[in-house]
Amino acid sequence: MALAVAGLIAVPGPGRAASGRDDTTWLQARLDRGGTIFLPKLKGGDCYQTRGLWVSHNGTRISSNGACIVYLGPGPTRLQSSDGDPIASNAIFIVNRSTGKATPPHGIVISDLTLIVPVGTDGYGVIVAGTHVSLVDLDVDGVPTDGITITGRNNGLGYAGPVMVRNSLIRGAKRNGISVIAGRDVTIAGNTITGVGLVGIQDPELGPWAGIDLEPDVASYPIDRVTMSGNTIVGNGGPGVLIALVTASGLPRVASQITLAANTIAFNSVTTGEFLRGGVCLQGGQSDGQGTLRLIANEIAHNGGYGLCSDAAGFDMRVALACNRLHDNTDGESQWGDIASSGSAVADDAARGAVGCG
């Protein structure tokens, strides 16, 4: 079997998977060269098996015809955090620079793969800390901490983006399906996210078990121009979408232009714990109170808790709602109060028309 790469080069690849298989060395060596990598599907449903892999070269494209990759545990340490902690490759793919002097990689595409993180390996599906990154037609399975994490951790920018996550399936995670910790120009579109906090959990994180969680670690991390559209977010342990714009160092300085459009957010918050329960849950806001959030033409139904939920501290965002259907949520439709009286405008005509709600 051969590994097809750019320029019609063929690199010997692995054969059938067997007990004790480990593809880390040759996969990491190939990724360190960059270029286009095609991983052919193995016979008999066998999977590649690897420790965490660094994707650090600009323009790297990883694709397949449906192969699967099983995570064996953390790979090599190539970076350190700002407080000196080593950063190992604790995801099947970690898209970040490999040295502290480099810029974050850009132009990365990962597509058409099944990524499996088994119980007990304590890893992630994909960690994205690059720019112009696309994750397309992925199936993230098993019990990752997050299926996909978007972050700026030690990438030299303090955020990732633009990032596109499209047409992918995440079924099961210990913390969140998709976590956006620091991102600009993030698009999450046409994905299905289910089973977070429920599937195969033996040692779950203490929530929030959200389908999608927008939650900066520190006030300097931006959550800016994030669009979630056409996703099916159903059957998760915690909220369908959690927008937690509160940090230990204060409200984030940039948390704005967040849009949810034409998503189905249903049958979430099926468990209880020390986290918010509902369909879409909102806390905090941009530090100057001028951050914006739009919800347009979403179906928010049959969730535990409120369809639109918050906590006792509430939120400070400029919120616009249009054409949403909220119904059959166990505690009621909204804890957000009278949005119109808060000074928030309804969504503009262009936004309403874009999702066909008049």
Describe this structure in words.
There is one protein chain. The protein has 358 residues and is mainly β. It folds into 2 domains: 1-15 and 22-142 and 153-158, no CATH class; 168-358. Helices cover 4% and strands 43% of the residues. The chain has a 12-stranded mixed beta sheet with strand order 2-1-3-6-11-14-17-20-23-26-29-32, with no helix packed on it. The longest helix is centred in the N-terminal third of the chain and has 8 residues, at 24-31. It is globular, with a radius of gyration of 20 Å.
Could you tell me the strand content as a percent range?
35-45%
What's the arrangement of strands in the largest beta sheet?
2-1-3-6-11-14-17-20-23-26-29-32
Sheet having the most strands: 12 strands, mixed
What count of structural domains?
A: 2
The number of helical segments is 2
Q: What low-confidence regions span 5 or more consecutive residues with pLDDT below 50? A: 1-18, 340-346
Termini separation comes to 54 Å
| Mean pLDDT value | 89
Supply the helix-strand structural class. Answer: mainly beta
Total strands: 34
Helix content: under 10%
Radius of gyration: 20 Å
| Overall form | globular
